[in-house]
Specification:
Elements: H1 10-19, H2 21-28, E1 37-39, E2 50-54, H3 70-74, H4 79-95, E3 100-102, H5 128-137, H6 141-148, H7 150-157, E4 162-164, E5 169-170, E6 173-174, H8 179-189, E7 195-197, H9 210-213, H10 224-235, H11 240-261
């Protein structure tokens, strides 16, 4: 937004928008709403980069389909419907030039007032008792594996190519630099071979330790890592092998999908036409 800085209060920001249309137009026309976030593209080497479009109600670009919230179609218990919606979103994402869709939310709702509860499919009845217990005493390792991880594991074992870390603490460690989650469990126990990227802006707490603990990409922009990696590599706080490993993970998936889609790239005529 124009003429605003980090010291502005919410009231000042709101007043700026009300007093003049520029701020509001800037928000409404921001590239988040109609352009891809591209990470690591090197055209001269044929590396497409990670071309990110957000969800979870569809592709947030152009005139793509806006599906009902996940809570609504999750209530149908119609797995085939969900598959068809996923197929439609996949085609529209490709038509809009994306190769990464960040819209599959399988977090377990812990409170009905959670602001993003509509993005998940609802509560599993078998988990209700365990969730109530976890709310009062915190999450221990048994409950973590019995309640909060099985649905993620099922998707990982189905061959998903990427995982997004969360903002929150898990057993006292930030999710984006939680080696137990991202390395020991995700890759060690589950055999995951894809890459992990942070949730946006505040999803990265410690850029230097995050590669070692399993976070591969900082999203949506090059921010903290760009500022700190150089010095950390020079001082030995960061091992180049950890950086290289993250690069290999993301590049291998980018090239895999680029090769797979080389002869099957639809144009925008598929939008609104695939269901």
């Amino acid at each position: 937004m124009p003429n605003l800085n980090l010291n502005d209060t919410f009231e000042n920001v709101t007043k700026s928008i009300r007093d003049g249309g520029d701020g509001l137009r800037t928000i409404l026309c921001h590239r988040y709403n109609y352009e891809l976030f591209v990470h690591g593209s090197i055209p001269r080497l044929g590396i497409p980069g990670t071309r990110f479009t957000d969800g979870s109600r569809g592709v947030v670009m152009g005139s793509s389909t806006a599906f009902p919230v996940a809570m609504a179609h999750g209530a149908t218990r119609d797995i085939d419907l969900e598959r068809r919606i996923g197929d439609a979103i996949g085609r529209e994402a490709k038509a809009q030039g994306a190769n990464y869709f960040a819209g599959v939310c399988v977090n377990l709702p812990r409170h009905p007032a959670w602001g993003r509860i509509q993005e998940t499919y609802g509560e599993n009845p078998l988990m209700l008792g365990e969730s109530g217990l976890a709310l009062t005493k915190g999450v221990d390792e048994d409950v973590l594996h019995e309640v909060y991880l099985p649905h993620f594991r099922r998707i990982v074992e189905g061959g998903v190519a990427s995982v997004m870390s969360a903002y929150n603490l898990v057993n006292g460690k930030w999710a984006d630099q939680n080696g137990n989650l991202l390395t020991d469990i995700l890759r060690g126990k589950w055999g995951y071979e894809g890459f992990v990227l942070s949730d946006f802006i505040f999803g990265l707490r410690d850029p230097v330790t995050s590669p070692r603990n399993g976070l591969d990409i900082e999203a949506p922009f090059i921010q903290q890592r760009a500022l700190e990696f150089g010095q950390a590599l020079e001082t030995g706080q960061l091992d180049l092998a950890d950086v290289d490993r993250s690069c290999v993970r993301s590049l291998s998936k980018e090239l895999e999908f680029a090769a797979r889609n080389e002869h099957s790239q639809p144009d925008t005529s598929v939008v609104f036409s695939v269901l």
